[in-house]
Amino acid sequence: MSFFDYFKTKKQNTASIAKERLQIIVAHERTTRNQPDYLPQLQQELLDVIRKYVSIREEDIQVQLDKNGNCSVLELNVTLPE
Amino acid sequence: MSFFDYFKTKKQNTASIAKERLQIIVAHERTTRNQPDYLPQLQQELLDVIRKYVSIREEDIQVQLDKNGNCSVLELNVTLPE
Questions:
Q1: pTM of the model
Q2: Any idea what DSSP says for residue B60?
Q3: What is the average pLDDT across B46-69?
């Protein structure tokens, strides 16, 4: 399943929720495990970029950072104000 | 299937390719279809932020922008230099 298929599925599942939402996912797959992880630092900078286009309230941001071996995934879920 | 499950699956599938990779996905789900789409403008700014942490060559960036109804998805796939 490609990413696009995933998002299409997701969209249909949540079509009844009439909220404007933004989801940002950064996945970093490294060749070795001992490199520094810059995803936590990226998080604030990515939000700052997006804030140039839409206003985002701190309380509407959900952040999840997951590490699994040499793969780190940063997921930001934002509900935009109506 | 959650995003994390997806990435775990993907990781196993591609474990034999020893390349450092970065994937950035921005999905914007809007309540109405006629709002301006800022994802194309976001693209360059997101790459500029990531370039603070790693060097990225233009030729190693693959960009895909998909629209499906009121859902826009920007996908950036970057192969990092070894």
A1: 0.72
A2: G
A3: 89
Mean pLDDT for all residues in chain A: 78
The CA-atom distances, in angstroms, between A71 and each of B9, B26, B79 are 11, 19, 14
Cβ–Cβ below 8 Å for B7 and A50 = no
Are residues A42 and B49, on separate chains, in Cβ contact within 8 Å? yes
| Cβ contact B30:B71 at 8 Å | yes
First and final C-alpha spacing in chain B: 32
- Of A33 and A71, more confident: A71
Candidates B7, B5, B63; CA nearest to A39 is: B7
pLDDT of residue B34: 64
Q: Which of B8, B22, B23 sits opposite A68 (nearest CB)?
A: B8
Chain-wide mean pLDDT for chain B?
Answer: 78
CA distance A4 to chain B (A): 8
Check CB contact under 8 Å for B11 and A69: yes
Output phi, psi for B37, to 5 deg. Answer: -105, 115
How remote is the C-alpha of B6 from its chain's centroid? 15
